[in-house]
Amino acid sequence: MPESTAASPFGLLRLPGEIRFGAGAVAGLVPAVTALGRRVLACADPFIAGTDAFRQAIAALEAAGAEVLVVSEFASELPLHEVEACAARANDFAPEVVLGFGGGSSLDLAKLLALLVRHPGPVSQYYGENQVPGPVVPLVAVPTTAGTGSEVTPVAVLADPGRALKVGVSDHHLIPHLAVVDPELTVGAPAAVTAHSGIDALVHAVESFTARRRSAGWTAPARVFVGRNELSAPLSLEAARLIHGSLRTAVSDGADLPAREAMARGSLLAGMAFGTGGTHLSHAIQYPVGAMTKTPHGLGTGLLLPYVVAALRPVIDHELAELAAAMGLEPTADAAVDGLRSLVADIGIPTTLADLGLTAADLPRVVDLTLEVGRLVDNAPVPDGVEVRELVTEIAAAAVEGRTPRPLA
């Protein structure tokens, strides 16, 4: 049968078997986890492992008869040697279920360990897309920040010293079995963490909504990121509405529960959208920027977003107007770009790559490394007649100089 064309509407979502959202949702964690197994491998970064919420969850699991191994000896960027060390402990323990509890690094490590317990290493053989040969150990994800959306996505990222950039394992088998999103767990997160993770969630929403439309390709192995589609787009818009309307308050008043609830829901919806729709150039350019400046992921994607959408105006003008309307702004592309720029500044994100220490001399390296992130670059809606290298070069140069990108189309 003939393939669908790019113009034909199609929809695709890949999600956990169950998603639980709401204040107090973590109260049901114990029966949900023990229904999957009694040997529980719990991943939490060193900070989260010391919190009352995590300690209470582990104590409740043990009181219910579960045997729990806590893994918390890892850095936020998940260096390969630490992933391998954690995997060795996990294999010795032979868990029946893996619990990820914390921010993106905790959830990503949980995904990687669920993979490496079921399938032999090295983890490098799974880099890229659709390399996981089958199901992994059942995974329960409990985010404590509103940002990464990792609790519902098929991607885990780590740092391999043999590579210039972070690398990812992207496969639908990594999608958690259950996501438990309790906004109360995000209360008290530091302002900088809230800002960086929160703006990254907005980037997920905007980039999944503006990602290149593709054909469905039903008869071929599907990409992990298939571009904007009819099922992801409404989630992107609602996520943008929620995050734009609550992020300033969540940063300025970390105890504001309505803002925290809106951020947690917006981050969740953005994760649901980009888990299949995908992200594009803000994320692709951030990979080398983050590596070269040692700055947080969300800081980089948030800084870059206004430059990226301004450069892509020739092909996403209509989408930007829709995003502006969803965010409560005048329904124009100009309002969307200005609104994103204002939000980034208001929550304390630097506004230029020069603020991070990059100069024009760094641009060739940034561009070369960006173009290596093919799965994201290929998802970008590049204007007709424009070379991708030219586009990325102009975005990066504008972001160094703090100016609007020049039109290339």
UniProtKB/TrEMBL annotation:
<protein>
    <submittedName>
        <fullName>Iron-containing alcohol dehydrogenase</fullName>
        <ecNumber>1.1.1.1</ecNumber>
    </submittedName>
</protein>
<dbReference type="InterPro" id="IPR056798">
    <property type="entry name" value="ADH_Fe_C"/>
</dbReference>
<feature type="domain" description="Alcohol dehydrogenase iron-type/glycerol dehydrogenase GldA">
    <location>
        <begin position="16"/>
        <end position="183"/>
    </location>
</feature>
<dbReference type="InterPro" id="IPR001670">
    <property type="entry name" value="ADH_Fe/GldA"/>
</dbReference>
<dbReference type="Pfam" id="PF00465">
    <property type="entry name" value="Fe-ADH"/>
</dbReference>
<keyword id="KW-0560">Oxidoreductase</keyword>
<dbReference type="InterPro" id="IPR039697">
    <property type="entry name" value="Alcohol_dehydrogenase_Fe"/>
</dbReference>
<feature type="domain" description="Fe-containing alcohol dehydrogenase-like C-terminal">
    <location>
        <begin position="194"/>
        <end position="379"/>
    </location>
</feature>
<keyword id="KW-0520">NAD</keyword>
<dbReference type="Pfam" id="PF25137">
    <property type="entry name" value="ADH_Fe_C"/>
</dbReference>
<dbReference type="GO" id="GO:0004022">
    <property type="term" value="F:alcohol dehydrogenase (NAD+) activity"/>
</dbReference>
<dbReference type="InterPro" id="IPR018211">
    <property type="entry name" value="ADH_Fe_CS"/>
</dbReference>
<comment type="similarity">
    <text>Belongs to the iron-containing alcohol dehydrogenase family.</text>
</comment>
